[in-house]
Design a protein that fits this description.
Blueprint (H helix, E strand, L loop, with lengths): L19 H21 L1 H12 L7 H17 L3 H30 L1 H6 L1 H32 L9 H10 L1 H4 L6 H30 L9 H33 L9 H8 L1 H6 L2 H25 L9
Helix pairs in contact: 1-4, 1-13, 2-3, 2-13, 4-6, 6-7, 6-9, 9-10, 10-13
Length: 312
């Protein structure tokens, strides 16, 4: 699509112009993609967090789920559902919506030739910029979620409203609402950069080497299949890249680590434990999660007549 000025403009490269309505729809697509998927795998997240903060007691996904169910019943496996749904809906809104904004902005700043030559750098810069704002929205709810999921039974409220009230009442101790923002950034910014870079790159490889005809000639089903496969593979890489920081975020919510710095917790835990404990569960969780997030996002974009993400 040609821009009204006749000059090259990143906002007019797709099937529809990237105007305010387009970005708003991308934000809504991000809400659906992240909120629904994260909330839907709450039991896996509960297991992962407990394996990270108490590896001696919780060892392995299946045994952890069984033990948690025995100790707290099925309700215990869904602890933190409320803050997960709200927090990751907000995060998804900014992650996906602002990625589109920043990507177009950086492409226009770079110009046509540089944008084509340094496309991967545009992906990385756009995703990192978006994630900074996404994590500010997520942080208070992520802190609440982790506290609910890792506190011993009976020591912290499980219901969403009561948990938020308790976090506010004990903010000197819990460092609420932004005490985990730096470790969250250290986890989520590399994760999101990997998520968007590898997704865009794998999609590009699919349309360059496998589906070599023009992208728009393929059915929506084929395009969404490419989206899911690319998202899943990108998610596996993301899980490995961001796992040490994810472990730190979980450990910050542990009562024994009250008042300790991030550096002190990392030193006491050890690099190997931070990088590997709960990693298998997280690879399964994040691979599936990322695949479905991209699939939901692109399905929504397709339904809105906006086309799927990525290409040659």
């Amino acid at each position: 699509m040609a821009s009204p000025s006749g000059k090259w403009d990143a906002r007019y490269l797709g099937p529809v112009p990237h105007d305010t309505s387009y970005y708003a729809k991308c934000m809504l697509g991000g809400v659906l993609a992240c909120g629904v998927t994260h909330a839907g795998i709450t039991p896996l997240d509960v297991a992962k967090c407990n394996m990270q903060v108490n590896p001696a007691k919780y060892n392995g996904l299946a045994p952890t789920l069984k033990l948690l169910s025995a100790e707290e019943g099925s309700r215990g496996l869904w602890k933190g559902f409320g803050p997960t749904l709200v927090g990751y809906s907000l995060q998804g809104m900014f992650k996906y919506g602002l990625y589109e904004v920043f990507k177009d902005t950086y492409m226009n700043l770079a110009g046509e030739e540089a944008s084509n030559k340094y496309k991967p750098l545009i992906w990385l810069a756009g995703s990192a910029s978006a994630e900074v704002f996404a994590d500010i929205a997520l942080c208070p709810l992520e802190m609440t979620k982790v506290k609910i999921q890792t506190s011993p039974t009976g020591t912290f409220p499980i219901s969403f409203g009561a948990a938020l009230a308790q976090m506010k009442a004990t903010k000197a101790e819990t460092r609420y609402p932004f005490g985990s923002l730096v470790p969250l950034w250290s986890r989520q910014i590399p994760y999101t950069m990997a998520k968007f870079f590898f997704f865009e790159k794998i999609v590009q490889l699919f349309y360059t080497h496998v589906f070599t005809a023009p992208k728009e000639t393929y059915s929506k089903g084929t395009q969404l299949g490419v989206t899911f496969a690319s998202g899943y593979l990108a998610g596996v890489v993301c899980a490995i890249v961001s796992h040490p920081a994810d472990s730190l975020v979980s450990l910050l919510g542990k009562a024994e680590n009250k008042g300790k710095s991030v550096g002190q917790i990392a030193s006491e835990t050890g690099v190997a434990t931070l990088a590997t404990k709960g990693l298998g569960t997280r690879v399964i969780m994040i691979g599936t999660l990322t695949g479905f997030q991209w699939w939901i996002y692109d399905t929504f974009k397709s339904a809105m007549g906006m086309g799927t993400t990525g290409g040659k």
